[in-house]
Amino acid sequence: MGTHTRLGLARVGWNYSEGRARGRRRTGRKGCYLIPPFEDSGFLPPGIHRATSDEIEERFGRAPELCRIQMESIRWMIDRAVRAGVERIVLNGSFVSDTLEPNDVDCALLLASDYPRDAAAAEDLVEGLAFLEILRLDKAGFEQIVDGFFATDRRGVPKGVVEIVL
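and the corresponding structure tokens:
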């Protein structure tokens, strides 16, 4: 029995030339979300795909080393965002594609009406961290970015993004 089967993962596809999972599905595990396989374009299917930070790390943040470092930055951002009063976080960019060495992680943060709850955490988000492009947005700006700019690639082809379950 292979590792993927023991972990309850059904292997959908692997891009050996690039070394990143093209798609893995969780099966039989209560409370798990599903990040669908990449399309031939190298992007997720159109839509917002919800996932926990652990699922995001499993799918995108383990290999190569650059992705592990980017995942550490994402976890740092999640901690600050929750403390500061962020309601939603959506990830975009090459990190959530089948690119072997992603450039950065584009992050759209929906700010709660009482933002900032923790001024120091909010200031950390302003200062940012390597590999993260953090956009702090009100509801209208968040919808415009997520449903507009993030929803297509550079050629205007629809693609998907990942929302972190907070």
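(Above: one complete record from the training split.) The helical segments are 3-6, 53-60, 65-84, 119-127, 139-149.
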